[in-house]
Amino acid sequence: MTPLTTHQDQPTLPRQRQAPSTPATPATATATTPHTPTTPTTATPALTAAAHTPTTPTPTPPLTTTVPRQYVHRASHAEVFLTSGQRLTDNHFHLTAQWPRTHTFFTTHPTHHDPLQAAETIRQAGLYLAHTQFNVPLDHHFLLWELNITTHPHPTPHTTHHPRQHPTELTLDATTPHTTHKGKRLTEFTMHINIHHNHHLTATGSGRFTCITPRTYQRLRPHTTPPPTTRPTNPHLIPPTHTGRNHPTDTVLTTTPHPHTYLLTPDPHHPILFEHTTDHYPGILLLEAAHQAHTHHTTTHHNRSDQNRGDSHSNHNASNNSNSNSNTSRTRTRTNDGNTPPYTTTLNTTFHHYAEYHTPLHIHITPHPTTTHTTHPTTHTITGTQNNTTIFTTTHTTTPTT
Fold first, then answer.
1. 283-311 helix and 318-336 helix, angle to the nearest 10 degrees
2. Rounded Cα gap, residues 364 and 297, in angstroms
């Protein structure tokens, strides 16, 4: 089986080395003390008193910046979320990250952030640790087999201090409980991670990665197809109001005659989903396709429910058309403000094969049997297939928005 890869071609940087445990100078070396000027004996009483007045030093805030983009396989510095990282023990790490006030693609709600933004942060953390703490060369490829995310909404809505007013400063606590080596080279690892904001647990997640050499990757994928240059015109492209996004270019799905089945038709020039060149559909795009399929399915379900309730109190003529337009408008409004449909709180994804550019990829959604009450979480399974082969499988669990 061949899962998705997260590699991009980047210039090779020197690998980050940890500080040596012993001083760089020989043990027999002696340190010299800088010369201290002697205080003049003719100093005035006022100057002498001032010199002995205790002062409180002003604390200097730590300076931070994003980590090198090559360490997280990003082409743009603006899409790098990690800001620092250090090893605490052999398999325990502390990292920091920052999410911007607003993002051109990931959306923010007063009580929670986009779960795919958390997924991208976890992906970056895994790559960063592999390169900087496990000495994986920058030209190696990464196969992501599993990615699991659970988001934890803030206990109180942000009314006065909305998340968009300030960047979100994050601390990440990561562990690598399972690692596999071939000689001294890391070949596979599992990472668990907790993401905190202001001491509140914002998200938890895990991922399983395999690291392979360029030569091995070439053997796995000897023949690849370049990405498309244009998106085919399709009148059945889902409007962004039914995908939870803001712009038509953000929509990646079109409807098909088959119920609960969509066709992947993304814009190949999208600045986030195709942020760097790959020889297959990127993993973040597959996660987004599943997210949009779930959002559209849930939105249209609510729309049909509203329309049925409206039709029961109207005649079959002009009033029916009016109700239909009203329901559509109401659905769009509730979707844009985050109240309909419920937001995803948990997604568990397994990648089985690469998603190729040259073959149509269909997204299928299956609701799980659940209660009809809208106050309970619901779960859907979304599957991506090409040529009757399963590419990825993910389950989305949603929680109603209060």
1. 140
2. 11
Q: CB pairs under 8 A, 24+ apart, for 373-376?
A: 374/342, 374/400, 375/400, 376/400
Beta-carbon contacts of 274 under 8 Å, excluding residues fewer than 6 positions away, are 227, 266, 267, 268, 282, 285
Q: How many angstroms separate the CA atoms of 251 and 246, rounded?
A: 9
**Cα separation, 202 vs 216, whole angstroms:** 37
Burial class (CB within 10 angstroms; exposed 0-12, middle 13-18, buried 19+) of 316: exposed
For residue range 277-332, list pLDDT tens digits in order. Answer: 889 999 999 999 999 999 898 877 655 544 444 443 433 333 333 333 333 333 33
Residue-wise burial string across 5-44, b where 16 or more C-beta atoms lie within 10 A, e elsewhere? bbbbebeeeeeeeeeeeeeeeeeeeeeeeeeeeeeeeeee
**377 alpha-carbon distance from chain centroid:** 22
Identify any residues that bridge with 181 across adjacent strands, giving them in sequence order. Answer: 186
Over residues 73-110, the pLDDT tens digits come to: 998 888 899 999 999 999 999 999 998 777 777 766 66
Q: Give the span between the Cα atoms of 264 and 60, in whole angstroms.
A: 50
d(CA 327, CA 318): 14
Range list of β-strands (E), 315-388? 343-351, 362-367, 378-386
As a whole number of angstroms, the distance between CA 157 and CA 213 comes to: 47
User: Are the beta carbons of 356 and 228 closer than 8 angstroms?
Assistant: no
pLDDT digits (tens, 9 = 90+) for 174-193: 999 999 999 999 999 999 99
Q: What is the dihedral of CA 99, 101, 103, 107, to 10 degrees?
A: 90
Instruction: Calculate Rg over the CA atoms of the chain.
Output: 27
Q: How do strand 253-255 and strand 112-113 relate by DSSP bridges?
A: unpaired
pLDDT in tens, 320-346: 333 333 333 333 334 444 444 566 789
